[in-house]
Amino acid sequence: MFRRSLFGLALLAATGSSALAQVDPLPSWNDGAAKRSILDFVMRATTAGGADFVPVLERIAVFDNDGTLWSEQPIYFQFAFAIDRVKALASQHPEWKEREPFKSVLAGDMAALFAGGEKAMLEIIMATHTGMTVEEFAKTVEDWVATARHPRFNRPYTELVYQPMLELIGLLRANQFKTFIVSGGGIEFMRPWTEKVYGIPPEQVVGSSGVVKYELRDGKSVLVKEPKVEFIDDGPGKPVGINRFIGRRPVLAFGNSDGDLQMLQYAAGGAGLRFMGLVHHTDAEREFAYDRQSRVGKLDKAWDEALQRKWTVVDMKADWKVIYPFERK
Amino acid sequence: MFRRSLFGLALLAATGSSALAQVDPLPSWNDGAAKRSILDFVMRATTAGGADFVPVLERIAVFDNDGTLWSEQPIYFQFAFAIDRVKALASQHPEWKEREPFKSVLAGDMAALFAGGEKAMLEIIMATHTGMTVEEFAKTVEDWVATARHPRFNRPYTELVYQPMLELIGLLRANQFKTFIVSGGGIEFMRPWTEKVYGIPPEQVVGSSGVVKYELRDGKSVLVKEPKVEFIDDGPGKPVGINRFIGRRPVLAFGNSDGDLQMLQYAAGGAGLRFMGLVHHTDAEREFAYDRQSRVGKLDKAWDEALQRKWTVVDMKADWKVIYPFERK
């Protein structure tokens, strides 16, 4: 009875409800196997004296960002930021009009840009993400987040976060889990807004990074972003990033693509209770539908492994009542 | 009055006292400029509406470890660990008897070892810190911490932490500061015990690191420590490490040697209220006395800059009533 009450209290805290009755901590999730697997996991992890109890210090939960906590179509939002930066900086770089991949970006020819492959993308990222101090870059990101709009939804990108995942993060935090983002995206692109949007502070964001260099400029200490990749937090890099930043094996990991496979395997490899989840994008009407053949967020091997190992696979269309917070009445 | 009460409550929380009267949150600090500068900083930072108020999210405090939170003489404790590991592993490496620097270590000839310089030290570190999984390594550290004894004090190394600094960390945490270690020492050497000893969890420990590699071994996911340096969190590396792991400029930084200078400069370079502190080892009787000429923990340039910029310099002999927790009655 006592254990049940504690869990109920945590659920109340998760939803911020002041009602005395126990409320649904995941109101945007339809009843189904995915929702039940989450509630079962949290109940087991927090039942003191139970076989699956997880000590508070071990309650580490990691979430991919692109396609797991917010949308990633038609292009990664960080790449939309980079393209907007190329346009904003073009007047300072007249040579870009004649030079690829900038020429295609400025002409709005995305097909030509994508034809340039990863090399072209990296060049765009380097030109827009380096050469300034980390604080100057953070300001640029903040300004973009405040003004840019998604082409399909015509809303700020940070409104295109998944309401059901916000509820899951809240439920975990109310039950003393520490929640981390572990993303292939740039760490300095995410940190300026993750606290406001997810309640996840900068130091709980793990991501890809470039080299930064310490300098004294007129006696003032600054860190300058250099055009050199330091760490790619994707695929096998995700367990490496988790070890580097968090130092413990997570008990819960949630992703949506093959880039999350090793992170899920790493969470699965620990002793005791585990939760591995994948978001499957099945809702072309409310969001996007893509998996095995997608250029962005390809879900193929990780899906097969999830099915084989009975990890939780969320079917967005079937499992989520609401996708985005703004859909709620 | 209200503000004062809040501060008082935080002080009570810091010391864990149940008394209703306000108690001294730093009982092991003698009254003096250092203690007053700390209390003044915390009061200003937490006074809502005051000119120096620091929002909770910005309350980032960073501490060097060796010589700032625990002793570092006669050799860095991590190096004592490495030497003990060489001895423990010697039977599996018969070739070490004839090969430097292992030969000197096994013969107990520290002078010969130090004559080998950084190259010899790095070789010892690599031989004892790599080739196993991160979890196997953590277990080795835990076992060593539980059994090894400091040659002078004949106590576990983790008892040689500074009681006044534990009180400072507690005071900061009670006032909603997030406390981090930022050490030149190995991140995986510290993380197994910092939670127990300082109340600082693994993910709030920043340090030097080696490359780790993700592998599946018989289907089980592991991270293997490779003999390659990844990051040296010392000198100009400290602001870089702070940016990478924490993502914000600290408002408080405490160190004790020239390796901490750039971290202190970086904290000093932010806007608003700041606190920069140095521990000066002046007590040969109770601990150790060393500064400008020391091989370990050299304090020279950072001391000059601290004096010039009026940072707080703690004189261990004069400012600390007690050095180690075990001295308390």
Please tally the β strands of chain A and state the result.
Answer: 8
Largest interface, counted by CB within 8 Å of the partner chain's CB: A-B, 39 and 39 residues
Describe the sheet with the most strands of chain A: 8 strands, mixed
Total discrete domains of chain A: 2
Instruction: Enter the CATH topology name of the largest domain in chain A.
Output: Rossmann fold
**How would you describe the shape of chain A?**
globular
Detail the poorly predicted runs of chain A.
Answer: 1-6, 15-20
Query: How much of the polypeptide of chain A forms β-strand, as a percent range?
Result: 15-25%
Q: Residue share in helices of chain A?
A: 40-55%
Give average pLDDT of chain A, whole number: 94
Q: Pairing-aware structural class of the strands and helices of chain A?
A: alpha/beta
Oligomer classification: homodimer
- Cα-to-Cα separation, first versus last residue of chain A: 35 Å
Radius of gyration of chain A: 21 Å
Give a brief outline of the structure.
2 copies of one chain form a homodimer. Chain A has 329 residues and is an alpha/beta fold.
Describe the protein in words.
Two copies of one chain form a homodimer. By secondary structure, chain A is of the alpha/beta class. The first copy, chain A, folds into two domains: 2-73 and 159-327, 3-Layer(aba) Sandwich (Rossmann fold); 77-147, no CATH class. In chain A, 40% of the residues lie in helices and 17% in strands. Chain A is built from 13 helices and eight strands. The first copy, chain A, has helices at residues 2-15, 33-46, 77-89, 102-106, 110-115, 117-129, 134-147, 163-174, 187-198, 237-245, 261-268, 301-309, 316-319; strands at residues 60-63, 178-186, 205-217, 220-231, 252-255, 275-282, 289-290, 312-315. In chain A, strands 1, 2, 3, 4, 5, 6, 7 and 8 form an eight-stranded mixed β-sheet that branches. In chain A, strand 2 (178-186), helix 9 and strand 3 form a beta-alpha-beta unit. The longest helix of chain A is centred in the first third of the chain and has 14 residues, at 2-15. Chain A is globular. Residues 1-6 and 15-20 of chain A have low confidence and may be disordered. The interface between A and B is large, with 39 and 39 residues.
